Amino acid sequence: KEKKYDRQLRLWGDHGQQALENARICMINVTATSTEILKNLILPGVGSFVIVDGGRISGEDVGNNFFLDPDAIGQSKSKVLLRHNFSLELNPDVKGDYTEEDVNQLLNKNPQFFYSFEVVIVSALDGATQRKLAELLWERKIPLVICYSYGFTGYLRIVVNEHCVVESHPDNAHADLRLLDPFPELIEYANSIDLEQMEKKEHSHVPYLIILYKYLQAWRKENDGQAPKNWKEKRQFKEKVLEGIRKNEHGVQEDEENFEEAAKQVNSALVPYKLPDSLRQMFEDPKCTDVSEESSNFWILANGLKQFVENNDKSLLPLRGSLPDMFSDSESYIKLQNIYKAKAKQDIDLFTSYLCNFGYVNGRLSDQEIKRFCRNAHFLQVVRGRSLSDEYKKISQSVLDGLISEEASDAVWYVMLRCVDLFHTNFSRYPGVIEEEIDIDVTRLKFHILQSISSYLAFPGLSEAISDDYVQETCRCGAAELHSVASYMGGVAAQEVIKLITSQYVPVTGVYIFNGLKSTSISLDV
Amino acid sequence: MEVDEVVGTKWTGRWKHLRKILERSSPFAHPDFEPSPDILEFMQESCRLLVIGAGGLGCELLKDLSLMGFRQIHVIDMDTIDLSNLNRQFLFRHSDIGKAKAEVAASFINKRVRGTKCIPHFCKIQDYDSSFYKQFHIIVCGLDSIVARRWMNGMLISLLEYDDDGNLDPSSIIPLVDGGTEGFKGNARVILPGMTACMDCTLDLYPPQVNFPMCTIAHTPRQPEHCIEYIKLFQWEKDKPFGDIPIDGDDPAHIKWICKAASSRADQYGIQGVNYRLTQGVIKRIIPAVASTNAVIAAVCANEVFKLATSCSIPLNNYIVFNDSNAVYTYTFEAERNATCVACSNKPRSLSFKPTTLLREVIDFFCQDSSLQMKSPCVTTNVEGSNRTLYMKNIPSLEAATRPNLAKSLQDLGIVDGQELIVADVTTPNSLLFKLKLSDDIT
């Protein structure tokens, strides 16, 4: 198993994999898009899934779906998908089930059915049912993922009340070196080193961290205790560091890579520490200030972090404890690394002592979880989305910005897809599906539907802002589901589901639209 | 209920989704687009596609292209199936481990998507010449190797035909659609050889791989990776734990041995973190991979092939990058042609050196220059009408015979200002021509 999942374990680790394997998801309606989402969840090993679809397979369904067979035309979609292909073919570790019950019936008679899932995925469900489902899940705090393809357009909406990310894996985070706020053990070690007295070889192998520390102290002495602040001062500081390179008997500078590295690191290493705004906000959140037995582990840990920060005068977070590689001899580097590790361990212990004030925490949090939380303290993220009913009340700023921007924005497709929804509500079919009525549908969309949308999204003049081309194209597609677009969205949506399940990496919290006509895409807060 | 009827590869509604796109006009279509049922027929009967690579991207591509209506699809891959492929290469099952990827993938697709005539080629792309590549309308690459991509790019450029006035014959252009992934990142691009930016025009988008400095590995290791590299570079050769054979990254016994040896080296220095997974990652230079990114990038590529083949919409011009590690991000832009590109500019590039420059330094330049990035260039020149090999790395006897030249300067080799060097390398199927400018004033 470890070998089978090797390539992805390198992205989300064993604990991420464990979370995935424990997860139970629900997929409503078999379409090419939803089938692709499920495929991309089964392959990496999601725990189990249930397919909800009472429909029968048509020739059209088989045409764009890799996992349906023409011999099964006329049979139950959910049953065939599960029995014949998915569970047997893709990944024997994953357990699957299906139900032929209608979603509306389930919602009316057995809403508890949905409570057991970590995430619910839905494709091509009529507007009214979708809203009903969204409301139910919003109350139960279960994320709902809506995803479908319409012609060349792919649509993804994640409806999630609150999602907390411990490991956001930022791409280029600065190392946590504490040069400007050194801790006693670092000071002690640095003071024990005397650059002047060193042998040539030793001097050229001092880690840049120590070099910067030394030059920083010297700078502070000459500048009323201040560190270099602006670009000019940092450049001067850099020059001083480079002057520290030893010269040979002819007055020519030796080759000292460590000093060159030190000069290069000045800008990133001397950034003054500031508690990230996102954390400041998080600490003010009532969920963080008032934790109780019902609080999730995340908020309990966040409260511990708040206390940790408030109990030191610089509002420092626990030290990350990892050291980037740097030019050095092995011994000095390892010594330095151990100093950082030991300090990080101290911080974790202190952090844990704040947690222990809550009796009910005992046994709920593993050492691993606490350690991960501390190591990622700088990057914690709480993302909050809006409910579907809020979205439909008023057009959002981000859609508006797209519509009034001079360059063609894919936000237009958001409006067109809202129109398609409304068209479906009014006519019980999608625009453009009947060959003979395409022209009538164009008129209906343009004059009737767009008008209504502009009034209920509270944006007068919407229909003028949208060129006829988009209306034409919407009808041309006639709800065609192209496999290429379905497959694109299947990849995107599956990864968002994995993010929601593992609490790693930051998910989309609004709408994401892919435009296959131009191979562009856009994220919208809605 | 009425049930759609199936006759062979035909059934009611099978192409209903595609027909709406191909048989109706659109304001976003290419000006040449004329909606008609003939387009689907062309895709099915005449349009020949070549998919290069039957791995993570290749499996997705075969599925996508066959469901988008293409039937004449060739697939080429030299690899066999490994257990670690199964988390994303969904045309393979546990029982297929060890079999040829191209063959298993092709037979799966032919069985599943009725009417598809996928033909596998279990070999390297370099095993075929231009007569093979000429037969295709569009080529799609789903590779993890930049060298192979550049070779393919060079092949398609060599197929271009120009008239006497130097005008490109459009019918000789075979579009190249290329996709690549790494973890949550990916990119896809459309190349019209001779018309838009080619692989070599944008080589700076693929920075050369950075290796650890040798002195760090040998004398001052600090990271577990340094210890593993040490075992790979020095200890393996010395101890020959499994006889006189190279390291096989897929042999668990090899990795275990390296892991153990690296651990004890790490212990000596107090370094922590050597384990099996890391060892294998370093030895095989493993790039993380996940099903979703492959699905996304392959889908973009298939969508572009569909647009190129049918004109139903304007193709991507010409590059998209994708990253879903933080929300979902894409950036679409036009990569520009490089007027001095050695692969597609159609003119020999001139290079300036001092007469005292050593041949070794010239060869290093070919390997390190960011716009050339060659791997093992073989250099010949023309002296009084006959070819003379200056250095040839890949054939041992010739290498030995030409090695002394490396330490000679250009003037000592008898090379004069204006002379042309002919350089062959694995990154291109064609030799490249460089015009030398020799002058003392060059720094």
TrEMBL record, chain A:
<protein>
    <recommendedName>
        <fullName>NEDD8-activating enzyme E1 regulatory subunit</fullName>
    </recommendedName>
</protein>
<keyword id="KW-0833">Ubl conjugation pathway</keyword>
<dbReference type="InterPro" id="IPR035985">
    <property type="entry name" value="Ubiquitin-activating_enz"/>
</dbReference>
<feature type="domain" description="THIF-type NAD/FAD binding fold">
    <location>
        <begin position="5"/>
        <end position="517"/>
    </location>
</feature>
<dbReference type="GO" id="GO:0019781">
    <property type="term" value="F:NEDD8 activating enzyme activity"/>
</dbReference>
<dbReference type="GO" id="GO:0005737">
    <property type="term" value="C:cytoplasm"/>
</dbReference>
<dbReference type="InterPro" id="IPR000594">
    <property type="entry name" value="ThiF_NAD_FAD-bd"/>
</dbReference>
<comment type="pathway">
    <text>Protein modification; protein neddylation.</text>
</comment>
<dbReference type="InterPro" id="IPR045886">
    <property type="entry name" value="ThiF/MoeB/HesA"/>
</dbReference>
<dbReference type="GO" id="GO:0045116">
    <property type="term" value="P:protein neddylation"/>
</dbReference>
<dbReference type="Pfam" id="PF00899">
    <property type="entry name" value="ThiF"/>
</dbReference>
<comment type="similarity">
    <text>Belongs to the ubiquitin-activating E1 family. ULA1 subfamily.</text>
</comment>
<dbReference type="InterPro" id="IPR030667">
    <property type="entry name" value="APP-BP1"/>
</dbReference>
UniProtKB/TrEMBL annotation, chain B:
<feature type="domain" description="E2 binding">
    <location>
        <begin position="351"/>
        <end position="439"/>
    </location>
</feature>
<dbReference type="InterPro" id="IPR035985">
    <property type="entry name" value="Ubiquitin-activating_enz"/>
</dbReference>
<dbReference type="InterPro" id="IPR000594">
    <property type="entry name" value="ThiF_NAD_FAD-bd"/>
</dbReference>
<dbReference type="Pfam" id="PF00899">
    <property type="entry name" value="ThiF"/>
</dbReference>
<dbReference type="GO" id="GO:0019781">
    <property type="term" value="F:NEDD8 activating enzyme activity"/>
</dbReference>
<dbReference type="InterPro" id="IPR014929">
    <property type="entry name" value="E2-binding"/>
</dbReference>
<dbReference type="GO" id="GO:0005634">
    <property type="term" value="C:nucleus"/>
</dbReference>
<dbReference type="GO" id="GO:0005737">
    <property type="term" value="C:cytoplasm"/>
</dbReference>
<dbReference type="GO" id="GO:0005524">
    <property type="term" value="F:ATP binding"/>
</dbReference>
<feature type="active site" description="Glycyl thioester intermediate">
    <location>
        <position position="215"/>
    </location>
</feature>
<dbReference type="InterPro" id="IPR033127">
    <property type="entry name" value="UBQ-activ_enz_E1_Cys_AS"/>
</dbReference>
<comment type="function">
    <text>Catalytic subunit of the dimeric E1 enzyme, which activates NEDD8.</text>
</comment>
<protein>
    <recommendedName>
        <fullName>NEDD8-activating enzyme E1 catalytic subunit</fullName>
        <ecNumber>6.2.1.64</ecNumber>
    </recommendedName>
</protein>
<comment type="pathway">
    <text>Protein modification; protein neddylation.</text>
</comment>
<dbReference type="GO" id="GO:0045116">
    <property type="term" value="P:protein neddylation"/>
</dbReference>
<keyword id="KW-0833">Ubl conjugation pathway</keyword>
<dbReference type="InterPro" id="IPR030468">
    <property type="entry name" value="Uba3_N"/>
</dbReference>
<keyword id="KW-0547">Nucleotide-binding</keyword>
<dbReference type="InterPro" id="IPR045886">
    <property type="entry name" value="ThiF/MoeB/HesA"/>
</dbReference>
<keyword id="KW-0067">ATP-binding</keyword>
<dbReference type="InterPro" id="IPR023318">
    <property type="entry name" value="Ub_act_enz_dom_a_sf"/>
</dbReference>
<comment type="similarity">
    <text>Belongs to the ubiquitin-activating E1 family. UBA3 subfamily.</text>
</comment>
